[in-house]
Design a protein that fits this description.
The complex is a heterodimer of chains A (398) and B (380).
Chain A (H helix, E strand, L loop, with lengths): L6 H17 L2 H9 L5 H14 L17 H14 L6 H14 L2 H12 L5 E4 L15 E5 L2 E8 L10 E7 L10 E7 L5 E7 L5 E14 L3 E2 L5 H13 L5 H17 L1 E2 L2 E2 L4 H29 L7 H23 L9 H5 L15 H7 L10 H12 L3
Parallel strand pairs in A: 1-4
Antiparallel strand pairs in A: 2-3, 3-7, 4-5, 5-8, 6-7, 9-10
Helix pairs in contact in A: 1-4, 4-8, 5-6, 5-7, 8-9, 8-10, 9-10, 10-12, 10-13
Chain B lengths: L6 H17 L2 H9 L6 H9 L18 H13 L6 H15 L2 H13 L4 E4 L15 E5 L2 E12 L6 E7 L10 E6 L6 E7 L5 E12 L4 E2 L6 H36 L1 E2 L2 E2 L4 H28 L5 H29 L9 H11 L7 H11 L4
Pfam family, one (chain B): Acyl-CoA_dh_N
Family (chain B): Belongs to the acyl-CoA dehydrogenase family.
Keywords (chain B): FAD, Flavoprotein, Oxidoreductase
Chain lengths: 398, 380
C-alpha cells in the first residue's frame, strides 16, 4: 500500500509545471481564474502552444502524434493545467472524435482528419442529442438515406456545444428505420459548410451562447465520411461515451475553483471580518474540501488500477456523480459568499475583453453566472441519474 | 501508487476473515454480548494464539510492528463480524500510548504481555465534560509523597469493565481547556478508591464509568513526563481514529451486502424490489458513500504512521468525517430498504446499523470533525 506518486511521476509533474509557468499566456490564465468566457482565438492559441510541445493529443497513441503518457501522467497533466489556470481543452475533436477515428476509421480517414485536429485546422462539435433523444440516445431520428456515393441527411441536432465555432460535426444518424433502435444507426462526419446546414444559438439561463441547434436540410454527405460499418454506429457511440466519462471527476478543476473561492472569501467582508473567518462559511468550505479529498483518493485508486492493467468499469460513474456535485457545490458557495454583489448581471464584462473598472471586484462578475452554467454538469455526459442506472445494473446487478 | 495489500497483509486478511466467520455467527455474538466480560475470551485467546494481538505492538517488545495498513486489515475484518473484543482500545490505542510515552522498563513490563494476550488495557480519556476533547480533562493527580493521588470521574471507558490496567488521562497542572498539564497514569482498577460501574454500550462492546476517589499511585504509574501527554495522546488518538474507520468500513460493507441481497430476493408487486428505480438509486447512493469511505480509510491508514503535522491532522479528521457520515447514511438507508425486517433485533443488519450510528460517539461524530476541520482550514 503506497498512496504516493513515484519519483518519476513527480519529476514529470515538475516538467509540466515548468512548461505551464513559461508558456501559459497570463491573459488567458486570468480569464480562466475569474470565470470569464474564452474566445475561439484564446482556445486556439493555447492549443497551438500545446501542439508545439507535442502535448495537445495527450490521449492518442504515440504513432498518431500522441504522448504515450501513462494514465497517472495524464491525470497529473490535467491537474497541473487546471491549477495553473489553463483552459480546459475542447474535447470534441481531440478527445472524442479522434479516438473513434483511431479505433474504427480507415487509413484514409486517419491520414486526413487526425493531422487537421492536431494543428487546429478543424474545430469539431458533437451531433448526438436531438429534441427527442437525450438520455435515450438510441432514439435519434436524424435520417440519412443512401443515394449513390452520398447520404442525404435530414433532421435536427441540439445542445451542440460551441457549434458556432465548428467547421465539422460528428453525427449519429439513422440509416435503417426498420431495425431495433441501436441497430440502425451510423456514425457520420459532416462538413459544417455543406449546403443545407444551419446553426441557431440557444441562450442558456446564465445568458450565455454556448450551445446551439443544428438543422440538416437535404445535406449531401459523401459515404466516405462514414466511420465504421453502416448501421454499426452505435459501437462508435458507446466507445466515445466511455472516453467522455473518464476524467469527469474534474479534481484539478475543483481544486482550482476551491482555491479561488477561498481567495474571494479573503477579500469579501462579513460583519467587519474577512468572510473566510465566518464560522458557517468555514464549515461549508470544510465539508466540500473533505469530500473533494475523498473523491481525489477514489480517483487515484481507479488510476492505479488502470495503471496495473485493469479496465475502468462502472466506478467511473461514481466519479462523474460525485465530481460534478462537488463542482456545483463550490460554485454555489462562490455565489453565496459574494452576498449582494452576486446580483449585477454584467454580460459585457463576462463575455468580452473588459478593461474597464469592475463594478465591485474583478472576481464578482462570474460566480452567479457560473453557478447557473454549471447546472449542466449533472445533466451532460450521461445525466447523474443515468449514471446511477449504469451503476445499479453493471456494478450491483439490479 | 499501489493500493493493493502485500502478500502478508492478504494472508492476515484471509486468516481473520475465516476466523471471524467461524467464531462470530450472529447467535454466538448475541450470547457473548449478554454475558460477562462482554466479549469472547475464547476468540480473544484465538487472536492471541494466531499472533493477531501482537500485530500493532513494537517488534522489540514481542510484537510484529504492524503499520496503519495492518491495523486496517485487522479492524476491517473485526468490523465485518461486529466483534466485541477491545482490540482497538487495548492493542492499538493502549499499546500505542505505552509505546509512545512509557519508559523502557514500563514498555518491557506491559507490551510483551499485551502482545501475548495476558494483559488487557483500556484508555480513560472521556469525562462528564470533555466531549471528545481531552484538553477539557478535570480529573486531577496531585503529588503525594513519592507518588500521586488521583481524583475525578471517567466516562464510557470502552473495554474498561474487563481491563487489567486502565490508562487514565489526568491533569497534573493547568486548567480545563489547556493542552499543557495533561498526564497519563496506569491505574489498577482493583486499587483502593477506584469504583467501576460496567454496562453494555449501544455500539456493542461493554464499557464502564470510573470514580476515582483519592487513588494512591506509585511514582512509576506515570507514563512520560508530568504534564506533557497531550501531543502523544493526540497522535495515538489519530491511530485509533484511522483504525476505527477500518472497523466501520467492514461493518458498512456487510450492511451494503445484506441490503443488496435483500433487494434481489424480497418480492413485492410480483417482482424483486430491486427492480424499482427509486430503490436502485438509494442502493447506488450507499455504494457511492461506501466507495468514498473506503478511499478515506486507506488514506487514514497510510498517514496514521506519519509524524504529527497539520496535514496529518486534516487528513485524519477528514477521514473520520467522511466515514462517520457514510456510516450513518448507510445504516439509515439499509434499515429503510429492508423495511420492517431491518428493525428487528433478530437480524444482524440491525446490529450493524446500531454499531455504525453509535461509533460516532467514540472520538466524535461527523459534526465534531466538521468543526475540527473548519478550525484547521486556513492553513490549506
Amino acid at each position: 500500500m503506497n498512496i504516493h506518486f513515484s519519483e518519476q511521476e513527480l519529476a514529470f509533474r515538475d516538467e509540466v509545471r515548468a512548461f505551464l509557468a513559461d508558456e501559459l499566456p497570463a491573459d488567458i490564465a486570468a480569464k480562466v481564474r475569474l470565470g470569464k468566457k474564452l474566445s475561439k482565438q484564446d482556445h486556439q492559441r493555447w492549443q497551438a502552444i500545446l501542439h508545439r510541445r507535442g502535448w495537445y493529443a495527450a490521449n492518442w497513441p504515440l504513432e498518431y502524434g500522441g504522448t504515450g503518457w501513462s494514465v497517472v501522467e495524464k491525470h497529473l497533466f490535467e491537474e497541473e493545467c487546471a491549477a495553473a489556470g489553463a483552459p480546459r481543452l475542447i474535447s470534441f475533436g481531440v478527445n472524442m472524435v479522434a479516438p473513434v477515428i483511431i479505433k474504427f476509421g480507415t487509413p484514409e480517414q486517419k491520414a486526413h482528419y487526425l493531422p487537421r485536429i492536431l494543428d487546429g485546422s478543424d474545430w469539431w462539435c458533437q451531433g448526438y442529442s436531438e429534441p427527442g433523444a437525450g438520455s435515450d440516445l438510441a432514439a435519434v431520428k436524424t435520417r440519412a438515406v443512401r443515394e449513390g456515393d452520398h447520404y442525404i441527411v435530414n433532421g435536427q441536432k441540439t445542445w451542440t456545444t460551441l457549434g458556432q465555432h465548428a467547421n465539422w460535426i460528428f453525427c449519429l444518424v439513422r440509416t435503417d428505420p426498420e431495425a431495433k433502435p441501436q441497430a440502425g444507426i451510423s456514425f457520420l462526419l459532416i462538413d459544417m459548410e455543406s449546403p443545407g446546414i444551419s446553426v441557431r444559438p440557444i441562450i442558456t439561463l446564465d445568458g450565455a451562447h454556448e450551445v446551439n441547434e443544428v438543422f440538416f436540410d437535404n445535406v449531401r454527405v459523401p459515404v466516405a465520411n462514414r466511420v465504421g460499418e453502416e448501421n454499426d454506429g452505435w459501437t462508435c457511440a458507446k466507445y466515445l461515451l466511455t472516453h467522455e466519462r473518464t476524467g469527469q471527476a474534474g479534481i484539478g478543476i475543483s481544486k482550482a475553483a476551491l482555491a479561488h473561492l477561498k481567495e474571494i472569501a479573503r477579500h469579501e467582508v462579513i460583519e467587519g471580518r474577512p468572510a473566510l473567518e465566518d464560522p458557517l462559511l468555514r464549515q461549508r468550505l470544510a465539508e466540500v474540501e473533505m469530500r473533494l479529498m475523498a473523491v481525489e483518493m477514489s480517483t487515484l485508486r481507479i488510476l492505479a488500477r488502470a495503471q496495473a492493467g485493469g479496465v475502468p468499469g462502472a466506478e467511473s460513474s461514481i466519479l462523474k456523480i460525485t465530481g460534478s456535485e462537488i463542482r456545483q457545490a463550490i460554485s454555489d458557495l462562490a455565489r453565496r459568499v459574494l452576498g449582494p454583489h452576486a446580483l449585477p448581471f454584467l454580460a459585457e464584462e463576462l463575455q468580452l475583453e473588459h478593461d474597464g473598472e469592475p463594478l465591485h471586484a474583478d472576481y464578482s462578475v462570474a460566480p452567479a453566472a457560473q453557478y447557473l452554467n454549471l447546472r449542466k454538469l449533472s445533466i451532460y455526459g450521461g445525466s447523474n441519474e443515468i449514471q446511477k442506472n449504469i451503476l445499479a445494473k453493471a456494478q450491483l446487478g439490479l | 501508487m499501489d493500493f493493493s495489500f502485500s502478500d502478508e497483509q492478504q494472508m492476515l486478511q484471509d486468516m481473520l476473515s475465516r476466523l471471524v466467520r467461524e467464531h462470530y455467527g450472529f447467535e454466538q455474538r448475541d450470547q457473548v454480548r449478554r454475558s460477562a466480560p462482554g466479549f469472547s475470551e475464547a476468540f480473544q485467546a484465538q487472536l492471541a494464539e494466531l499472533g493477531v494481538l501482537a500485530v500493532p505492538i513494537d517488534e522489540a517488545h514481542g510484537g510484529m510492528g504492524g503499520s496503519g495498513v495492518e491495523n486496517l486489515v485487522v479492524m476491517q475484518e473485526l468490523g465485518r463480524g461486529l466483534c466485541l473484543e477491545p482490540y482497538l482500545e487495548s492493542q492499538i490505542l493502549g499499546g500505542g500510548l505505552v509505546q509512545a510515552l512509557g519508559s523502557e522498563s514500563q514498555r518491557e513490563a506491559l507490551l510483551p504481555a499485551l502482545a501475548a494476550g495476558e494483559l488487557l488495557l483500556a484508555v480513560a480519556s472521556e469525562e462528564p465534560r470533555t466531549h471528545y476533547r481531552p484538553e477539557w480533562t478535570e480529573t486531577r493527580a496531585e503529588r503525594a509523597g513519592d507518588g500521586w493521588r488521583l481524583t475525578g470521574r471517567k466516562s464510557v471507558v470502552i473495554g474498561g469493565q474487563a481491563a487489567h490496567r486502565i490508562l487514565v488521562v489526568a491533569r497534573t497542572a493547568g486548567e480545563p481547556g489547556e493542552c499543557d498539564g495533561l498526564s497519563l497514569f496506569l491505574v489498577d482498577p482493583a486499587a483502593e478508591g477506584v469504583q467501576r460501574r460496567a454496562y453494555p454500550t449501544m455500539a456493542g462492546p461493554w464499557a464502564c464509568d470510573l470514580t476515582l476517589e483519592g487513588v494512591m499511585l506509585a511514582d512509576d504509574a506515570l507514563l512520560g513526563a508530568a504534564g506533557g501527554a497531550f501531543e502523544a495522546l493526540g497522535h495515538q488518538l489519530g491511530h485509533a481514529m484511522a483504525a476505527q474507520c477500518a472497523e466501520a468500513l467492514g461493518s458498512m460493507q456487510q450492511a451494503c451486502e445484506l441490503t443488496l441481497d435483500y433487494l434481489k430476493t424480497r418480492q413485492q408487486f410480483g417482482k424483486p424490489i430491486g427492480r424499482f428505480q427509486v430503490l436502485q438509486h438509494r442502493m447506488v447512493d450507499m455504494t457511492t458513500e461506501l466507495e468514498l469511505a473506503t478511499s478515506m480509510t486507506i488514506l487514514a491508514a497510510c498517514v496514521a504512521d506519519e509524524p504529527a503535522s497539520q496535514e496529518r491532522s486534516r487528513q485524519l479528521i477528514a477521514a473520520q468525517h467522511v466515514v462517520k457520515r457514510a456510516a450513518q447514511f448507510i445504516a439509515e438507508q439499509a434499515i429503510q430498504l429492508h423495511g420492517g425486517i431491518g428493525m428487528t433485533w433478530e437480524y444482524s443488519l440491525a446490529h450493524h446499523a446500531r454499531h455504525l450510528v453509535m461509533l460516532g460517539h467514540r472520538f466524535g461524530d461527523d459534526d465534531r470533525h466538521l468543526k475540527a476541520y473548519a478550525d484547521l482550514l486556513e492553513a490549506s
